[in-house]
From TrEMBL, chain A:
The keyword Zinc does not apply. The lineage of its organism: Bacteria, Pseudomonadati, Aquificota, Aquificia, Aquificales. Residues 43-264 form the Pyruvate flavodoxin/ferredoxin oxidoreductase pyrimidine binding domain. GO terms for biological process: response to oxidative stress. SUPFAM superfamilies: Thiamin diphosphate-binding fold (THDP-binding), TK C-terminal domain-like. It comes from Sulfurihydrogenibium azorense (strain DSM 15241 / OCM 825 / Az-Fu1). This is Pyruvate:ferredoxin oxidoreductase alpha subunit.
TrEMBL record, chain B:
GO terms for biological process: small molecule metabolic process. Keywords: Oxidoreductase, Pyruvate. GO terms for molecular function: oxidoreductase activity; thiamine pyrophosphate binding. It holds the Pfam family TPP_enzyme_C. PANTHER family: PYRUVATE SYNTHASE SUBUNIT PORB (PTHR42897:SF2). Residues 89-235 form the Thiamine pyrophosphate enzyme TPP-binding domain. It comes from Sulfurihydrogenibium azorense (strain DSM 15241 / OCM 825 / Az-Fu1). This is Pyruvate:ferredoxin oxidoreductase beta subunit.
Amino acid sequence: MINPLTTEVQYNKSGQKIVSPDYLLFEAPREKFFMTGSEAVKEAVKRASVDASVSYPITPQSEAAHLIGELWVEGYVGVYFRGESEFGVMSEVAGCALAGARTITTTSGPGTLRAFENFPMWAGTRIPVQLVLMARGVNSPLSIQPDNLEVGFLLDTGCMIWYAENAQDLFDMILAGFVVAEKPAVHVPVITVVDGFFVSHTREAVMLPPDDIALPPYDPKKAPMPVIDLEVPPGRFLRDPFVMKSNYISYATHASWQFEVRAAIERSRPYAKHYLRGLIEEFGNPDADIVFVAAGTAASQSKEAVRLLKDEHGIDAKVVKLKTIRPFPYEELRSAVKNAKYIFVPEFNVVGWMEREVRRYLYKHSDAEIIGAPRVAGGMTMPAEVIVEEVLDYLKVR
Amino acid sequence: MSFKVFQINEEFLDVMPKEIVDLQENATWGNPKRGVMDLPFHKELIEEHSLCAGCPEAAALRYIMASIPNPEDTVIVNSTGCTSLVFPHIAMHTVHSLFGNQNAVASGIKRVLEYRYPDKVKDVIVLAGDGATIDIGLDCTLQSFFRQEKITTICFDNEVYANTGGQESGATPKGHVFKMAPKGKQFEKVPMWQLAIDSGCKYVARLTVSSPKRVESVIKKAVYVAREVGPTYVHLYTPCILEIGLNSDQGLEEMRSKDKERFAFFEYISPEAEEVINRKKAEGLL
C-alpha cells in the first residue's frame, strides 16, 4: 500500500508488500498450483500478515498446524508454539488476541469440544481470532473420519461460521475472514469450516496471488474493545466487568451484551458479501423446482447430482451453496428458493443441523417440501448417485 | 506507556465515585521503589471492595498491588473466584477469561507483548486461587512452567473452594472436613511449591501474608526474576475466615499460627534468579 503522506510503498514485518484486501483477493494476478487443503491454509496464512498462532495436534488438522509452524521459522508468523491441549490452545490464542495480535489456530473434531468453553469467551471478549476447523467425527467409538456434527455445536457460540467447499474457497475465506472479523463494527471471532480429509488431504487446483504481497497488518487500536497492551486507553479496569449480582441492571447488562455480540455478527453481512462475492452461490438451472441447500463438500456432491439428474433423467435441479452459516444468509436463501417445490438438504452429520437451520429460516417463507436427506455420517462419503436416488425415490419417478 | 492511559476522562471526573478518583490521584505509578510502606498514604484498592470484612485475601491484594514494581506496564490475569470479584476495584489492567486457563491466557499475552514491544518491559502476573491453580488449572499452570513462560504466578491458597461455598480442594490438608469431603479429605495437600520447582520455576516462595514487608520482598523478587529469567511462583496462605469459622478480626492470628506450621516461610532461588536478585539489591530496588 502507498502511504499517502510519503507516497512510499509499505511493507509488513516479513518484508512483504502491503496491498489492500480488494487487490489481494480480486485484482492481483493469480497462478495455478496443485495442492491440498492444508497447503492452501499455509498459502493463505503466508499472505495474511499473521502475528500469532498456537497449535495442538489432532487429525486431520495437524498438517495445517505444522505448515503454519514452518511459516514461523521462515519469518512470516510472529509467535508460534504448541500448547498443552485444545483448551490450553484456545486460551493461549485468546491471550495473543487480547494483547493485540492477528491470531489464527486450527483444530478438528474432539479437539473442538475439548476447547469449547473458550468459544463463547472469545465472542464475549470480541477478539477477532480465526479458527480453521477441519471438521471430523466426534462421538464414541473413536473415529478420525470426516463428519461435521461439531459445527452444529458451534452455531450459537457468538462466533461467525463460514463454510469452505474446497481448497480455493478455504484460501480465499481465510484471507477474507481476517478482514471481515477485524472490522471495528464486527470484531468477533470467525470459524472457517472445511470438511476434514475430503478437502484437507486431497489435492486440487488452486489459483494463488503472488506471495510477496500481503494483507495490511491488524491494527488493534481500531478494536471496539481496549487492547490489553498497556498502550491504549482506557486501561484501568477489567475489560468485562462482572455482572453476577442479582439485580435487574446486571441481568440487562449481561443480556444486552449477548445481543450485541450477535448484532456484531449481523453487521458482518455487507463485508462478507463483498469479500466472499455473495453469501450464497447458485449452480444449475435457476428456475428448477428441485433445490439442494448445502455447504462444504455436500455442496460439491450436490452439484454433481444436478449434472446427473439432467444428463441421465432429464430433471432440472439447482444447488444453493451457503458460504456463511453465521450470519445465516436467510434473505438470499428465501429468494433463491422462491420457485422451489422440493428442497433437499444433504449433509455430513447424524443430527441434520443444516436441515434445522433451513427449516427455521424458511418457516412461513416457502411452501416447498423440505427433505432432510440424504444424510451420511461417521466418515461415509455421499456419492452423487445417492443424492440422485433420494430425489427419484421422493418424486416416485421410478 | 504514557501515564495518561490511566487518567480518568476529565468530563467524567465529576460523576465518578470519589474512591475511583482517589485510585488515580493517590496511586504510586512510575516509581520502582514503591512498596507496602506507601500503603497508609496511597491507595491501591477501593475500601468498598467486594471481599468479606477482614478477608486476608484483601490484605494480600493490597500488599501485592503496592509491591508490583511496574504497575503501569503490568497485566494481571486472574481466574474465577473471590479474586475475580475484586479485580474491577483496582487500578490496573486485568484480564479474566475462564476458570483455570489463567496461565495459558497469560502465556499468549506475554509472548505477543514481547513480540509487539521488544524494547519495552511489560510484566505479566497471574493471580488465582488454589482451585484455579492446583485443580482445574493445574495442566495450564505446570505447562506454562515447562514452557518457561516469563510470567509470575501467584496462588492465593485458602485451602478450600470458598467462593462456591466451601468444597475441599487439592490444597486442603488431609482429613479436613468440607463440603464434598464429608468424611474428611482423603489425600494429602498438593505440594504446589515443590511441583513448581520440579517444573522449572526459577524462583519459588511459600508464606502467609502476616508480614507485609516479606510479601513485598517476595513479589518483587518474583517479578524481576520472571522478567529476565523464566517462570516464578509464589504460594500465599490467605485463609477464608468465613469457611473455617473465624471472626473478621481473626485472620491475622490464623496466618501467624500457620507461619510455624505448613506455611512456614520457604524460598527457592535458582542460581540464575540469585544473580538477578543480587543485582536488583545493588540497584536499591529490593
